[in-house]
Each structure stands twice: as C-alpha cells, then as structure tokens.
Amino acid sequence: MSASTSAPAPGCLPVLGRDVRAPLVTGGDAEYAALDYAASAPALQRVWDDVAAYAPYYGSVHRGAGYLSQLSTELFESSRATVAGFLGCRPDDQVVFTRSTTDSLNLLAAALPPGTEVYVFETEHHAALLPWQHGGSAAGRVTVLPAPGSPGQAVAALDSALAARVGDGPALVCVTGASNVTGELWPVRELTAAAHRHGARLVLDAAQLAPHHPVDVADLGVDWVAFSGHKLYAPFGAGVLAGRADWLRAAPPYLAGGGASRRVLRAAGGGVDVEWQTTAARHEAGSPNVIGAYAIASACRALTEAGFDALVAREQTLVARVLAGLAELPGVRVLSLFGADAARVGVVSFVVDGWSSPHLAAALSAEHGIGVRDGLFCAHPLVRALLGDAGGSAESAACGGAAGDGERPLNAVRVSFGAGTPDEHVDRFLAALGSLVRDGARWPYRTVDGRCVPAAGAEPVAA
Q1: How far is residue 41's CA from residue 47's CA, in Å, rounded to a whole number?
Q2: Confidence class of residue 456 from pLDDT cuts 50, 70 and 90?
C-alpha cells in the first residue's frame, strides 16, 4: 500500500487517494482508478484538511464550560446551519445528524404517526425500501409500487395509488432522487406535487442526488431529505435527515439518553419523569459525531464554492463518454428504466454477454487497477426487474454469483464517478473493458468466500 500527493487533473476537485498504486496480478502496479463513487466517494482533500485542522480542538459538545467544549459546540451547531443552507431548508425545518441515509430513514420510520400509510417504489435502495416494514416503524400499510417505465409513469402510478386511499389519515411517499443502479434522475418535483395533492408527505432519498446536483428542499417542496456524508465526499459515519419538525417533535426520541432529554426527575411512585427536547437534539442522544457533522458541512461548502453548474456540466461529459464507449463494445447492455435518453448522474450499470459480472469486476481490478462494483447494489428488486430472464442467460460459469435453488445468477457491473474523477480514469476503464470483452481475462479466477478472486499460484492465461 503506497500513496503520494500531487496536483489533481484539470477539472477535478482534489480527493484523497488520487495517487494510490494498486498491485496487478500480472505484475507491476497501476494508479488506482476509483470508479465506485455510488458506494462511497473518496473524501475531498479540502474536507480532510478541515477535519485535521479541527482535531486538536476536539471537545465534548453541549456538555462543558471549557474552551474546547464551547468551540466544539459552536462548530457542531454552525455545521447544522451550513447543511440547512446547502439544502435550501425552510426556516422551521430541522436538521438532524445521523449515521447515514439508512439511519435517517429508519429514524423517520420510527417517528411516523401511528398507522401512517407508506408508498414506495420497488426500485428503491434497501435503505429506502425496508425501514417502513421493520419492527421499529410506526407505519401502517406499506404499498410497494412496481417499477415504472418512464418518469411520467412513475407520477401516474403514484397519483393513482394515492387517489385510491381510503380515509384521510397520514401518508408518506419515499422516493429516490437518482437511482443508485441506473443513475437516472427521478421526477422529484412532480412526485412531490402528486403526494401533496392527495394529502401525503414525501421524503427524498438524496444519497445519490446530493453529490451530483443541487438539492433545494423549499424549491422542490419535499417534506424531508436524507443523505450520507460518505457519498458526499466526507468520511464515513455521518448522515443527515432534514425537513419538517412536527412529526419529529411529536415522536418519542429515536434513542433514549443524554442530550435527548431536557430534564429528568425522580417520579413520586418510583422511576423517573422525563421532559424531552423539542429541537433536533431530541433524536441525537449520546455524544454526537462532531467530526462527522463538521466533515459534511465542509463538503457542502466545497461543492457550493466549486459551483454545481460547472460540476454537473463536466460530469455529463463523462457520462456521455462512458455511454458512447459502452455502445461500441459487442454484447454490452446498459441497464435503464427510462430509456437511452434519460437524464442521469455519473452512475451506469451494465451486463456483458459471456461474462459473469463478478468475474468481469474482478478482472478489471486485478489486471487493470480499476475499482467498480458488481452485484445487486442493495436494490435487489430493481436489478432483478431490469435483468429479468436475460440476466444470466449468456453468462460464463466462471465466478458466477450466488443464486437460490433453480435460479440463475443475476448481477451486474456498476461504474460510478463524480467530482474527483479524472478523465483518464474513465478512458482507462473503457480501454480495459474493451480488452476484456474482446480478448478475455489474462488470469484464471475462482470463487473464495463468495467473491471472485485471482487464482493463487496460477499462471497467466495463454493468448
């Protein structure tokens, strides 16, 4: 493991790990091309520098009179204000710091008024698909809508489902802003309008949207937004749930403990009486992740200062380059819900005839130093709907993905990129993929602990 620092390629934001060298199974090494941004984006150098500068001043938040505690408390709360500004929050909205998008949506699920009807498309990431059916949720009936074939179909399906509601109890729609599988942009504004037309609220899963496009809560009209720091060029371990305060104030604390409580008194008959906070602190019990919150705020500032218009424009040139390159290769099928002309962020998933996706991803890494993702991307119903019966029809047996009895392996390869991706990494990916598709892998592979890996002690495959 080695790394060095150098200036980023023109047009890129500086990120950590830009010059990490990856060993190649065929000998030597190569500059690692990180093309798995949809899972976790590398941290911006600016974010890391800000965190390092703060580290000597680390102190307990909201619990100390000393200088470091006061400084950390101010930093934590100013980070909340920075995130609110980045998201275009309304004056009465709350910004709650969580651990991740998954944590944010589970928090909201626990805060729903009892019996809330929830509507969600089967195309969602599991973080948005599953919390409403979990034991910790207060949701009532959960309606899972089928994968739409176009943005218009998505709006029509939601409108129809909400129109069929019986009664006027609380309802919530959960929808992604950009698919973590196809990268396609969803019609958030139109879906929000449909929800509000029928008295429902909407929470936006912006995990894949916020790193690529501006998200304005007030302008879109969404009721809540959730995202993760580690996809927004900040380190792991922090996320955000931002939006309307009323349901959050009315719900029991997500976690019970210090910070969430305003006053605790011994009850006359034994036990304790608790007065809970009504601010965001109500759902932030325990010592908060100050560094995580500050890192997210730093990333928000860095993206804002870089200018989203410029970032989006450059990313779209990379998207076009990837799609054009994939179209030139035989047997490559790009996955899409909304069609070839759909707008998307820098996320593209595909399958290749004659290849299992785990085998292809392993060869890209081991032979070319290129990191992509393979599998079902924590969106199993969506990937299965996109692949259908064709998903494993022509796959090689080498390193096939796990499947149930009587099932063929269904999985895909995902390449994803963003503000820290240099042009040459995209070019290397397309060249390496072309070489593998046309000439095959140069090394034998086998499955170990469920993963496709280069066979130890093997010899290169004869040309």
Answers
A1: 12
A2: confident
Q: Measured between alpha carbons, how far is 423 from 403 in angstroms, rounded to an integer?
A: 36
The conformation of residue 445, written as its DSSP 8-state character, comes to E
Q: Assess whether 413 and 278 both reside in one domain.
A: no
Tokens of 156: 């029509």
CA proximity to 421, closest of 15, 2, 6, 5: 15
pLDDT tens string 358-403: 999 999 999 999 999 999 999 999 999 999 854 443 444 467 555 5
| Neighbour-count burial for 361-400, b at 16+ CB within 10 Å, e otherwise | bbbbbbbbbbbbbbbbbbbebbbbbbbeeebbeebeebbb
What is the span of the domain harbouring residue 415? 21-43+307-454
Strands, E, within 235-363: which ranges?
A: 239-243, 261-266, 272-276, 332-334, 347-352
Is residue 449 helix, strand or coil?
A: coil
What predicted TM-score, i.e. pTM, was given to this entire model?
0.93
* Residue of 107, 60, 81 lying closest to 239 (CA atoms): 107
Of these residues, 89, 174, 300, 378, which one is catalytic? 378
Whether 239 and 386 map to the same domain: the answer is: no
**CATH code for position 251:** 3.40.640.10
378 catalytic per annotation: yes
